[in-house]
Structures are given as C-alpha cells and as structure tokens.
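Weekly sync, protein design subgroup
Attendees: M.S., D.O., the rotation student, P.L. (late)

Item 1: inverse folding check
M.S. brought a backbone from last month's batch and wanted to see whether the design step gives back something sensible before we order anything. D.O. pointed out we never logged the input encoding, so this time it goes straight into the notes. Structure tokens as presented (352 positions):
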C-alpha cells in the first residue's frame, strides 16, 4: 500500500539522510566532505534516495511492486506532492530548487528494473547502457546541480559514472557470480572460450576470465581519461572532490591489476593511506586541470540521456510546511546551513 504525503520536518529529513549515507557508504560520505558546503547537502540527499530505491528493489518481497512504487513516488515528487519518506522529501527539495531533469531519474529506475529482471549484456555497448542508467545518471545529476548544463559536460559526467560502474563490475565478478549475477559482456567471454552459463554455475579464476576482466578495466580507463575534460568544466570549488573520486575509483582497477585480475577469489581494496594520497593529489591537479580543445564523441548509450535533459519534464513548485518562505536562492542557502548545523551538533560543537 502506498503511503500518503504528510508534512515535512526539514531538519529531520536532512539529518536522516546524513545518517543513511554514513551507515550505507563510508566512501561516498567521506568524498562528500571534499565538496563545498553548498553542494554537500545536495549530494547526500541525492545519495539517500538512490540508496533507498536500490534497497527497495533488491530486498523487497516483489521487485515489480517496488518498481511501480518508485515510479509513483517520482510522479508525486514532480507534481510537488512528495510522500512522507525522508528521502522523498529531501529529493523533492532538490528537484524543485535545481529543476532536475526527470529523464535522469526515470533512467535510474530503468537500470534498477534491468537488475531486477536479471538482464545480461551481450556486448560492451549493452553494458554501457546499464552503467549509464545506474551510475551515469547520478554523475549527470551532480553535474547539473553544480552548474554546467551543456551536453558536452553532462556527457563527461555520465561517462565518469559509467567508468566507475565498470570498475565495480570488474572488482565484484566473483561476488556477483555467487549471487547468480553476471555482468561481464557475454561476447567477450565467448571470444575467450568461456561458456557464460557453465561458468556461472561454477565460477572460477582462469587465464581466460583474467583477459575479460583486464579488457573491462581498459575500457574503464578510457572513460576515466575522457571524464577529465568534464571535471575541468566544473566550478573550481567542485573539481577536487570529483577528481578525487575519479582517482580513487581508477586506483581500484590499478590495484586489481596488481592482484593479478583475480576478483573471483577475493575483493580488491585500496588502502586508506593510498586514498589519502590520492585526495592530496586531487587537490593539486584540480588547480591546473584543463579540458581538450576538441570534445570527444559521447558514448552512444548516453546520447539520449544528455540530449533529453533540456526538454525533460520540469517539476511543479514545491514548498513544504516548515520550510522558510524565501527566494529560491535563500532557501538553498538555508538547506546548506541546516546541513552544517546537523554536522556540528553531531560533533558536539554546537551551532549558535
């Protein structure tokens, strides 16, 4: 049964989203701290909705009903009548304040649906389509909120998300297989003499599967290089955070290579010391990073996403009870101040 909308308590909503991120993704929460304060609350609110939506589809009794509910909830958000769940209320603020293109959120739900249906991917281009939906959309939405809305920069942001998803897939081959899931391009597996169905029944490491994983990491590396152009187009105070995320995720692939590409028998991790070093590196690189004079062609799988953003459905006005009746700019500032107060209270510093 779908829940009815109710009054929002803005401070509670943001605090709940902070706790949701802290408990669900320490890496993402830590990375969010590199963002300027004006973007931090937005990143956390977006993450909270994505995480809850993913969990709802993965862990619910019926993925079909969960998907129907998510689509209904997004409908209400864009009608200015979000349901009472904290993640919906927080996302509604972002949708209203930044006029987030609905195309991206609809595509994200499509990606969840592909997962729920156990979809497999014959070619790398097919896998690009999956990565664009479950990760590229989030990258593009973050870019949109930071400011750039041109197709070239949105494409680079989307491709960064795809690169990260390919890295995740390469790292989690064994874990996914033990859960009955296979994301590697089936055509690549067959080229190496691997029968995908037989391998999934008895997943094991071999020279053949090593070559497939290596090929996937090389594909991700090409997209990481393209993403650098997009990072250079972001506001200066946002570049180091996104560059740090790019460097850390790419390092997962580098470490997997050092591990002999064996993601079947163990999960590759990047040490805390190495992550800190990469964060420091990102601070330096962000000061001189530049984009190429000639933008590269975007992945075919993301063209419809970035192309539809400018003509995507715009949200109806949304101003919840308890939220200051100010200009849009003032309300955005208020939300960020609220987030800073939550963080200060958590640390026992107080906020006066």
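Designed sequence read out in the meeting:
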């Amino acid at each position: 049964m779908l829940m009815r909308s109710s009054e929002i308590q803005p401070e509670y909503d943001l605090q709940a989203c902070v706790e949701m991120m802290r408990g669900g993704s320490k890496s993402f929460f830590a990375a969010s701290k590199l963002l300027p304060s004006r973007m931090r609350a937005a990143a956390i609110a977006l993450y909270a909705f994505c995480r809850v939506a993913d969990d709802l589809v993965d862990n619910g009794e019926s993925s079909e009903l969960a998907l129907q509910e998510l689509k209904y909830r997004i409908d209400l958000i864009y009608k200015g009548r979000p349901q009472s769940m904290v993640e919906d209320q927080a996302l509604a603020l972002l949708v209203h304040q930044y006029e987030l293109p609905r195309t991206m959120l609809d595509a994200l739900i499509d990606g969840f649906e592909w997962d729920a249906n156990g979809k497999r991917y014959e070619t790398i281009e097919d896998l690009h389509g999956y990565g664009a939906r479950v990760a590229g959309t989030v990258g593009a939405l973050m870019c949109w909120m930071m400011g750039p809305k041109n197709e070239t920069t949105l494409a680079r942001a989307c491709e960064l998300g795809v690169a990260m998803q390919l890295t995740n897939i390469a790292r989690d081959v064994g874990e996914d297989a033990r859960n009955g899931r296979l994301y590697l391009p089936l055509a690549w597996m067959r080229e190496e003499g691997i029968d995908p169905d037989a391998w999934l029944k008895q997943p094991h490491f071999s020279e053949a599967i090593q070559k497939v994983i290596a090929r996937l990491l090389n594909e991700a590396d090409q997209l990481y290089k393209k993403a650098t152009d997009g990072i250079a187009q972001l506001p200066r105070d946002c570049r180091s955070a996104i560059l740090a995320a790019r460097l850390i995720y790419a390092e997962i692939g580098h470490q997997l290579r050092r591990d002999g590409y064996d993601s079947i028998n163990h999960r590759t991790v990047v040490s805390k010391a190495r992550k800190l070093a990469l964060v420091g590196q990102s601070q330096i690189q962000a000061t001189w990073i530049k984009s190429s004079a000639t933008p590269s062609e975007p992945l075919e799988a993301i063209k419809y996403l970035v192309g539809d953003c400018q003509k995507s459905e715009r949200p109806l006005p949304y101003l919840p009870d308890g939220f200051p009746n100010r200009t849009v700019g003032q309300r955005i500032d208020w939300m960020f101040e609220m987030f800073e107060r939550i963080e200060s209270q958590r640390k026992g510093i107080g906020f006066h």
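Discussion: The chain has two domains: 1-98+322-352, 102-314. Residues 207-232 form the longest helix (26 residues).
Action: P.L. to compare against the previous round before Friday.
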